[in-house]
Write a structure and sequence with these properties.
The protein is mainly β. It is built from eight helices and 52 strands. The protein folds into five domains: 114-347, Glycosidases (TIM Barrel), CATH 3.20.20; 405-573, Galactose-binding domain-like (Jelly Rolls); 584-673, Sandwich (Immunoglobulin-like); 682-761, Sandwich (Immunoglobulin-like), CATH 2.60.40; 769-908, Jelly Rolls (Sandwich), CATH 2.60.120.260. β7, α6 and β8 form a beta-alpha-beta unit. It holds the Pfam family Glyco_hydro_85.
């Protein structure tokens, strides 16, 4: 762990700030916190970290050194949600298979590296909810620059497990064209002196520590036959040592000779990585997209005495989604059933390429990809030459198999957080760890005459969490609409009850389908008004006692005709019983990240056995009230962007049982101490440092958040003094001027003096300020490297933001510009990834610029930290130099690939302006 300097703290602030919840916070009612006396501890010497906890991404060498005991981020990447049991629902159309399976290989996080372990404020995340159609999720990730061994983030595993879906991490050996190295594969399959595979043991250690379910091995780097043989032995080693609940999935890529040659089939060449005699090598195989027919693969699996549905025919939907050439119908046999199982590569298209991170488009795309254009799994109208939706051929599964079952229809993101119908935290968020089980059927709705209700996920209102189910459309008085929600396999007792929380419905009756019964059981309930228009209806399950409930739905009515909006906020099945939760002990602040001098993100962990506990809510106590800060299923959490209100803050962690009830007396409190407030930091920049007499110049100060005043003094300027973070001066006389800036806060003042910073000249002296990078004499032949000849250094100096310098092979890329002769330099402008039309998340974050006259002795003139902009300007005091060196200390916001579309070196094509 590394302590931060204030310079690096300020540089990091904009990145970490993007992870926090919104700042506008509502408080729990005062009575919520009273009569609870908890033991409160205080901790000093809290370790400082550069960033909030991040998901793990490693290379073979770093995997070997990894340990959950030594990795400070490890506790925050753990999933504590057990894998739920689940069963198949009743077939919704005749085409659905009850045998074939679905493998989703999804890019669940935007980046391989730099993913916050437990969510943040970005609402537009891949919070997948159609788990009813997925049998295994591969959390796809990996890159040569960020890491090739990538376990799933704990929040994804939590949501998948709650829905009964196992999750596996990725081992990705890239093709050489994408930075793959044969030495990585060799290191990975290396044996020790005892004949063991240390890397395999580490994979098992990580999956056990983090709570996920195995690994997807994607080997696309050309190696020799010896390494290829070792890889097969490696997988067999994993098979004999992995727990029964874990699985190893192999990608049809490498052959026994070590060459990558995708077969698009299970055949004699690659079968050894699937099955060898009686020995299972991999549990599943993902057949590459190049397949032409699947009958031979099915026959080969049968010949090997393996289930053909352990083979997954790949359909690549990354670029085109539902417009992809291959369709779910493409893998059907003559009998209309899948020949093998379905493997979808990058169904996250729904959010990324197909949705462009627009949430409304995401939900529409999810409907098209997983269900069908009708949004009804019963529909079979789509022809085979169109995308039919996964629901057409794969039966729904459900984890609703035991009581209690509680859902708030919370998808794990939203515009605000609600508790019991009241808004407790403003601002967009994502937290997949607390995603509920969403309806099995999207949607099965039967409207009586005159009703036209349609259903959608809504963030407009919620009962608990950030979302609800919205039913909207025309309704006729006293005509009901049936909404089938969940497939189930439940047995209720005579004393069991159910509750439904709705808003906008005049009547809601419970509809249960029972095994062996042709007609559903309809139960009327008793209504009770709650806050903000929410109504709770309670039902007795006595009529269903000792019978198996196979589905759960609702009938809703309105008393008057017209346009209707009805929200479903909660469904609770099972009588609330006394279920004592485990007490929480030993709340420890295990680390902090200083966002700015008024704001810190705080890591905390606690001890508990977790009995009967669904989640933990974290509060900050302010003036006797509890302010909600977050919720997790884990035993570690990071509260983001906590504002200083004095030197100390009291935090409380409260366990929540499976009925959603808080057990405050089982919680724990601790006092957190903020970093001592220091004098402010200040950095000064100018719009230009070389101007003619009579023109104005803008000076700006980047200061600590605690700064109360910024005062300027430029002797000889008009005016000579000014106040504010941005000020303007002009000059009536030529000369060299010094800038003094003073920042003040409650702890004192910080003064910055930039001697001889501004050069003012007479307009008629012939000075021409231009971009020296595009002069014929300027070249670039030195640097860390580039991906190919079309992305070499020279393209950073051509003045064209359609071309770029790109280097993805070095941790800290650098390049040198040779101006051909000594010239006068006054500043620089950099155009990053966003300026070229790429993601702003690839913009250079931290960089240095140095200059030299001889190419040997360098003077650093720019240290820019925390950039997020598509372009950045840095003015410097005039300097004479021939060479300029750009060093990318952090080439992206999270990764290390250089993407510089243009580097303008601003100055004058002459010397002598700088006076001795």
């Amino acid at each position: 762990m590394k302590r931060k300097t204030w310079k690096s703290v300020i540089g990091l602030s904009s990145t970490v700030l993007a992870l926090t919840f919104g700042a506008n916070v509502l408080f729990m009612p005062k009575g919520y916190a009273e009569s609870v006396e908890l033991k409160t501890s205080r901790e000093a010497n809290i370790p400082l970290f550069d960033q909030v906890p991040e998901s793990t991404a490693l290379f073979p060498e770093t995997l070997l050194k990894w340990s959950p005991k030594s990795d400070p981020d490890a506790p925050f990447n753990v999933s504590t949600v057990p894998l739920a049991a689940r069963v198949q629902g009743k077939k919704m159309n005749a085409n659905q298979s009850t045998e074939a399976k679905v493998l989703s290989i999804a890019i669940v996080n935007r980046h391989t590296k730099g993913t916050p372990s437990q969510g943040g404020t970005d609402k537009a995340v891949y919070n997948f909810t159609n788990w009813q159609y997925v049998d295994t999720l591969v959390a796809w990730a990996g890159s040569s620059g960020e890491g090739i061994i990538v376990p799933p983030s704990g929040d994804v595993t939590d949501s998948a497990h709650r829905n009964g879906v196992p999750v596996v991490g990725t081992v990705f050996f890239p093709p050489e064209a994408y930075g793959g190295k044969a030495e990585w594969v060799t290191q990975f399959v290396q044996k020790d002196q005892k004949g063991a595979f240390p890397m395999a043991d580490k994979l098992l250690e990580m999956s056990a520590a983090y709570g996920f379910d195995g690994w997807f091995i994607n080997q696309e780097t050309n190696v020799d036959s010896q390494t290829a043989t070792a890889m097969k032995e490696f997988m067999s080693y994993l098979q004999t040592r992995k727990p029964k609940n874990q699985q190893i999935i192999w990608y049809d890529s490498m052959l026994p000779n070590g060459q990558v040659n995708w077969q698009g089939a299970l055949n004699d060449k690659n079968q050894g990585y699937f099955q060898e005699g009686k020995k299972r090598v991999s549990d599943k195989m993902f057949i590459d997209f190049r397949w032409q027919e699947l009958t031979s693969s099915r026959e080969k699996a049968v010949q090997l005495k393996r289930d053909p549905y352990d083979l997954f025919a790949g359909i690549d939907v990354q670029a085109n989604g539902v417009n992809s050439r291959r369709k779910p119908s493409s893998i059907l046999g003559e009998n209309g059933q899948p020949l093998v199982s379905l493997g979808l590569y990058c169904p996250d298209w729904t959010l990324r390429d197909g949705g462009q991170y627009d949430i409304e488009r995401y939900w529409e795309n999810e409907k098209l990809l997983w269900i069908n254009p009708q949004g009804d799994p019963r529909a079979v109208e789509s022809p085979k030459n169109e995308w039919q939706g996964v629901s057409r051929y794969y039966v729904e599964k459900t984890p609703v198999t035991s009581l209690p079952f509680v859902t708030n229809f919370n998808v794990g993101n939203g515009d605000a957080v609600y508790q019991s119908g009241a808004k407790v935290k403003e601002g967009t968020f994502n937290n997949r760890s607390i995603q509920d089980v969403l309806p099995t059927y999207r949607w099965v709705i039967d409207n009586e005459e005159g009703n036209k209700l349609e259903a959608a996920i809504s963030h407009e209102d919620a009962f608990n969490g950030g979302s609800s189910i919205k039913l909207s459309g025309e309704m006729t008085a006293e005509q009901q609409t049936f909404v089938k929600l969940y497939a189930s396999q439940l047995k209720a007792s005579a004393s069991d009850t159910a509750t439904v929380v709705t808003k906008g419905a005049d009547e809601a009756s419970l509809v249960l389908e029972l095994k062996g019964k042709e007609q559903p059981l309809i139960i009327q309930g008793q209504q009770q008004a709650l806050v903000n228009g929410w109504v709770q209806t309670t039902y007795s399950l006595k009529p269903a006692a000792c019978q198996t409930v196979t589905s759960v739905g609702l009938n809703v009515k309105k008393n008057e005709s017209g346009s209707a909006t009805i929200y479903l906020g909660q469904l609770k099945l099972g009588k609330e019983k006394a279920t004592p939760v485990s007490a929480i002990n030993n709340l420890v602040f295990s680390g902090k990240t200083v966002v700015d001098d008024l704001t810190e993100s705080i890591r905390m962990t606690w001890d508990t056995k977790g009995k009967n506990t669904a989640s933990y809510r974290i509060y900050r106590e302010i003036n006797g009230q509890l302010q909600f800060e977050g919720e997790t299923a884990n035993h570690s959490y990071t509260v983001l962007n906590q504002e200083r209100m004095g030197g100390d803050a009291i935090y409380r962690v409260i366990p929540v049982d499976y009925y959603g009830r808080e057990e405050q007396h089982k919680g724990v409190s601790a006092v957190y101490t903020f970093e001592a407030l220091k004098r402010p930091e200040i950095a000064v920049n100018a719009s230009s440092t070389l101007i003619p007499v009579g023109e104005t110049i803008n000076l700006s100060a980047t200061v600590s958040k605690s700064t109360e005043t910024v005062n300027w003094e430029v002797i000889g300027a008009t005016p000579q003094t000014a106040s504010g973070k941005e000020v303007t001066f002009s000059f009536s006389e030529p000369g060299v001027y010094t800038v003094k800036a003073t920042a003040a806060n409650a702890s004192g003042e910080t003064v910055v003096i930039k001697e001889n910073y501004l050069h003012v000249y007479e307009p008629n002296v012939g000075i021409k300020i231009e971009n020296l990078s595009t002069l014929p004499t300027t070249t670039a032949t030195q640097g860390s490297g580039y991906t190919n000849d079309q992305e070499s250094y020279r393209f950073a100096l051509d003045g064209d933001i359609k071309t770029k310098w790109c280097d993805n092979a070095n941790d800290k890329p650098w390049m040198i510009a040779d101006l051909g002769a000594v010239k006068t330099i006054s500043g620089f402008e950099l155009f990053h990834a966003g300026a070229g039309g790429e993601s702003p998340e690839w913009n250079t974050r931290d960089y240095d610029i140095s200059v030299s006259s001889d190419g040997k002795n360098w003077l650093t003139v720019v240290q820019h930290r925390g950039n997020t902009s598509n372009s950045s300007k840095d003015a410097i005091g005039l300097v004479e130099a021939r060479y300029a060196k750009l060093s990318l200390e952090k080439a992206e916001q999270n990764g290390k690939t250089a993407r510089i579309y243009d580097w303008q070196i601003i100055g004058v094509n002459q010397t002598g302006i700088v006076k001795p």
